[in-house]
Every structure is written in structure tokens, then in C-alpha cells.
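call fold(seq) -> C-alpha cells
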Amino acid sequence: MTRLILIRHGETDWNVEGRWQGQADVPLNARGRQQVTQLAQSLANMGITVIVSSDLSRAAETARALAHATGLSIHFDPRLREIHQGEWQGQSIGKIQANYSEALRQRNKNPAAIAAPGGETATQVLGRFLAAVEQIRRDYPDETVAVVSHGYALALLIAHYRQVPLEQAWDLIPSNGGWQELNLD
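ret:
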């Protein structure tokens, strides 16, 4: 059984501002750096043997804190990136609601098939994320693997394994600097 420790990156200024980051490469803020230092200390003795991370800087910095605490190296995998939000990346939810109200309504109604303009669907994100997880299972059977990623991408994975509809994945987004355990048989 592969044990995954699913970790969401620490806080960024865009998290605080309510801006949708998507695959924009936004760094951690001061609070986010404090969160990941505490996170790394709390996970240091969890038996983690491997760290796999999104290559975006906010996840990479989170993974580096864990690597420092555990002495492990990091394997970067772009398949663990957040959903690409297309034209909505960098915009606040208020601006998205004002400028794309119908597109947002349609996307929220059917995220599996409808993407933000120029972005990815939930199905596309889940497909690439599951491919990465399957490789982790093959490469690291019976190990404890820290997977450092992003809120919605992690929520989609959690929804998949808990058999929750993708439309409800928004309710499963971990907090910044939060983590959950997932055991894969």
C-alpha cells in the first residue's frame, strides 16, 4: 500500500486577495513561509520517504521546507500543477463574476466538461494528476510519499478516491499549508 501525504502549498498574496492563481507562478508570502516551516516540522517524523511536488514556486517552496526538515530530495512533476484557469488567472472572483458570469455559471454547473476560457476542465486536471499518482504508486510501492500540490487539484484527487462528484470538489479544498493522508491499496 502506498501512503500519500497530500499537502497544499502555503499562503500567497493572491490567496489573501481572492485572486485565482491557476498556473500563474505566484510565490509564498511571509505567512505562507511560516505555515510551511510549521508544516515541515509537524510532518518530519511521519515516515515520509519521498517528496514529489508541483514545479510551481509556491508548491516548490513548500516542498523545500519539508525536504530541509527530512533530509530528502524533491522530485518535481508538472502534472501536479493547479488547474489552468485560462483568462481567469490573476483575476478576483468579483471580476470573474462581473465579466464572465454566464461562463462561470456554466463551468460551476459542469466542471468536468466546461473550462474557463482558455483553461482546463476538471476532468483534464484529474486525468493528469491521476497519471502522476499512478506513477508514484509504481515507483514507490509500500512507501509514504509527500505530494505537494494545489488546492483544487488536490480536491479533485480527494473527490475521486472518496467517490464524491466533481461538482462538490470545491468543498474539499485543503487549507493553505494543510495536509491529508490517503492510503492507496
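The chain has a mean pLDDT of 97.
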